[in-house]
């Protein structure tokens, strides 16, 4: 019973925030056809609403009000240049989290993966180059077809990368973005019941709903989302998770994905809204220590593992209660 109570405390402590004032950059790509444009606009609007609800600074690229610039061939005002300029500003940001969400179509020619914009497209390598000098935590979420290669290109320390497909060869229209745009602020996705939906939880729900759509329609699934937040660029599919914990690893001794994504959210719970930035950072660090301990569990004796776990959970309880 003692350890059951401790594990319940661990569940409550999950999904800790990584920054107080995030920036959300939402990019609506080229529609190709009007029906797709309407869908992408709807997905974009959901992300905007979630970002504003959570107090994020929201930057929108690719809305229809800017269409006239592209029609006139103004290269300096293309969506690609706007995205590059928005990322350039991030160099001045040293700590606050940044979300970059790509909603649209993608292509892959066997060598280069691109996200389709009105005007010039942006490749995975170009986006990686733009982000190289950016030191703040960044989550890049590419909801397009053929987005798999972005996972390897954008991997890195302090990065979360999510792609709608596992490879560039999955080229059909991707529906993952629809489900993720709904899940990101959906309390029903809150698996650990801490009052907020983390990026990991939204990813898990959206992936499950995407696969259910293919089954209900009797179609062969042509998209398989992946998440990488360990920096190895391999990615983890949703069915490798039990709850919010990965139960499989791509490498025998490699890092486990999902730990950082469980600490990111756009819409904070009531408790997190009143937390100081310092306390949030402390909680975040303790959660990472607990995750690392869980990964070492099989190499430790039972007594040593639970003793270390108890110490960390007591520290968490003290932070939540405000005691020393």
Which CATH first-tier class of the largest domain would you pick? Alpha Beta
Low-confidence stretches: 1-19, 67-73
For the record, the count of structural domains works out to: 2
Give the strand order, joined by hyphens, for the main sheet.
2-1-3-7-8-9
Number of helices: 11
Sheet-strand content, in percent, reads: 5-15%
Which architecture of the largest domain per CATH?
3-Layer(aba) Sandwich
- The CATH topology label of the largest domain is Rossmann fold
What structural category arises from helix and sheet content? alpha/beta
**Structure summary, number of beta strands:** 11
- Major sheet summary line: 6 strands, mixed
Order of helices and strands: HEHEHHEEEEHEHEHHEEEHHH
Helix share, percent? 40-55%
